[in-house]
Amino acid sequence: MLDQAADLDRVFHALADPGRRVMVERLSAGPASVSELARPLAMSLAAVLQHVQVLEASGLVRTRKTGRTRTCSIDPVALRSAESWIAERRTLWERRLDRLGDYLGGAARPADAGPTGPGPADPRTAANDPPKETR
Amino acid sequence: MLDQAADLDRVFHALADPGRRVMVERLSAGPASVSELARPLAMSLAAVLQHVQVLEASGLVRTRKTGRTRTCSIDPVALRSAESWIAERRTLWERRLDRLGDYLGGAARPADAGPTGPGPADPRTAANDPPKETR
Fold first, then answer.
1. Which residues of B touch A66 (CB under 8 A)?
2. Could you tell me which of B13, B17, B105, B115 has the fewest CB atoms within 10 Å of its CB?
3. What is the four-CA torsion angle of B123, B127, B129, B130, rounded to 10 degrees?
4. What is the average per-residue pLDDT within A112-131?
5. Cβ(A114)–Cβ(A129) under 8 Å?
6. Looking at the DSSP assignment, which residues form a beta bridge with residue B32?
7. From the list A8, A13, A18, which residue is nearest B5 (CB)?
8. Selected residue of B28, B72, B91 to mutate for chain A interface (largest A Cβ count, 10 A)
9. What is the ipTM of this complex?
10. Is the CB of A86 inside 8 Å of chain B's CB atoms?
11. pLDDT tens, position by position, B103-125
């Protein structure tokens, strides 16, 4: 359905701008016109419209013109695909830490385990201690 | 801890590049040296190093130099803050749809409900039907 790589490029690029994130925040509470989106922002309508176009191209937002009003609303598919991509990487990384914790717990060699002792302890400390064989 | 806006700018910008996402994917399986990161990519080591610097500046990745080897690993804090930001917006948007569904279900006015009938039906259809008062 989505050309994954290209679409994630566009979604993450769209979210990298603070003004566009404010617009997504506003729209997550419900549809809004372009002028409603512009109201809290120190931006011209033209600038807001450009941001809306970036959001629309990324798939995060859909717009519909009714008379002279362009109404914007969230399209959740792109939001979900970006969220899943991040969540999958985070989960993979956490699972690896769990296995590392099990291994260290099972091996129970306090001399190798460093100042925090054996076991999972602080996961971030464990993650930043790659195997010692590089030196 | 994080300067939220500026950091999310950097995190989403870092994730907007497919090569950098490949690196994050590789690192979510465990720490790797810069040359290990370069191996599957059609990129010079210098280009990979530049991407690593962008990832490091965003907080997604930490690096540590041991002798001549720079080892990279995931820092989950930035990954989590980007994931939370998206998840919160998605949740807000879904809650609004639920309320809209409840309202339409409670009001039970089939004449106003369009071809899909009253009730929550397809949430995306509902989301893209803003109130009719604009025309």
1. 134-135
2. B115
3. 150
4. 44
5. yes
6. B72
7. A18
8. B28
9. 0.74
10. yes
11. 888 766 555 444 444 444 444 44
Please classify residue A57 by burial: count the beta carbons closer than 10 Å to its beta carbon, then call 0-12 exposed, 13-18 middle and 19+ buried.
Answer: middle
Structure tokens at A93: 């990384």
* Interface with chain A: mutation pick from B2, B7, B12, B77, highest number of A CBs within 10 Å: B12
The CA angle B2-B8-B12, to the nearest 5 degrees, is 145
Q: State which residue of chain B sits closest to A76, comparing Cα positions.
A: B90
pLDDT at A23 over 90: yes
CA distance to B26, B27, B58, B79, per residue, from B30 (Å): 7, 5, 19, 15
DSSP 3-state of B33? strand
Pick the range with the lowest mean pLDDT from A3-7, A58-62, B9-13.
Answer: A3-7
Chain-centroid distance, C-alpha A7 = 13
Tens digit of pLDDT for each residue in A51-83? 999 999 999 999 999 999 999 999 999 999 999
pLDDT at A6: 79
User: What is the amino acid identity at position A67?
Assistant: G
Tokens 């996402």, residue located = B21
